[in-house]
Specification:
Rossmann fold, alpha/beta, four-stranded parallel β-sheet, single chain
Length: 275
């Protein structure tokens, strides 16, 4: 008999939440073999019955589910019990307990977190804006930016911008070759929006640039990868940041998420100061 567990993840939405919960749960147990069967947007009794019939054919089937419709969740639990298949609801008790604490009846709407509200459309607009204003593009429109990132090449400007866009911030990023590469609008009014300088240790930057050149199968560009030149470039960038009084984040040992979190905090402070 196989010792592989057949994990059925049944959700009335995308199933992403449920999959994350299972992975966190699985991490608590060593040396288990399993196969995941994911069923998203499960919203009818007929769909559930077909899934359970398949689960019944396999040994060691276990069902985890996130279904907010009470009647459908009960049908799944009762039918699983009849077929003697272990079945566990992930959100049921949590929603009930929150409902009691908040003294508010839950909506029990599938995909409640994905409702296409104004915030959703603002985020889509921010992503589109950020993609169009990557790497110094459309500098004539930077006055529409919520955040502007400035930094020398390979300081994680683009991935950080995309992360911020997913949080709803219209973000432009500008590669800093020298001070002349900055748009006049920014030099004349350096505080017109939230501007953040990104920096990194020269040694780390040299490694990143060499790897970049190797991945592109291009010959080594001496100025681009030479450590002494990079030290000079980073120093000049810091002087530029200081001149225009822009806050600086050293991204050397930071993940994109950590860098973005710091930028969001800076944006919050900036917004409070201009009110």
């Amino acid at each position: 008999m196989s010792n592989t567990y057949q994990i059925y993840l049944i959700s009335d939405s995308t199933g992403e939440t449920l999959e994350r919960i299972f992975l966190a749960l699985k991490a608590q147990f060593k040396n288990i073999e399993y196969k995941i069967h994911t069923y998203s947007f499960t919203r009818t009794e007929n769909q559930i019955l077909k899934i359970l019939e398949d689960a019944k054919k396999n040994n060691n089937s276990i069902i985890l589910y996130t279904i907010v419709d009470n009647n459908l969740a009960k049908y799944l639990a009762n039918t699983s019990n009849d077929k003697k298949i272990p079945c566990f609801g992930v959100l049921g008790n949590l929603i009930l307990n929150f409902s009691k604490i908040l003294n508010q009846k839950a909506l029990h709407e599938p995909s409640g977190q994905h409702i296409l509200n104004e915030e959703y459309y603002d985020r889509i607009e921010a992503i589109q804006f950020t993609m169009n204003h990557d790497d110094g593009n459309l500098l004539n429109e930077i006055d529409k930016s919520d955040i502007i990132l400035v930094g020398v090449s390979r300081t994680s400007k683009t991935p950080t911008s995309i992360y911020l866009a997913n949080k709803g911030f219209k973000t432009s990023n500008i590669p800093l070759v020298n001070e002349n590469s900055l748009p006049e609008k920014l030099k004349k009014d350096p505080q017109f929006t939230c501007v953040v300088g990104l920096s990194t240790e020269p040694e780390r930057l040299a490694d990143l640039r060499k790897n970049r050149m190797n991945s592109l199968k291009e010959k080594d560009n001496t100025n681009y990868t030479n450590l002494d030149d990079i030290k000079d470039e980073v120093m000049k960038a810091k002087k530029t940041f200081q001149k225009y009084k822009w806050p600086v984040i050293d991204v050397t040992r930071k993940s994109v998420e950590e860098t973005a979190a710091s930028i969001i905090k800076i944006h919050e402070i900036y917004s409070n100061n201009v009110k």
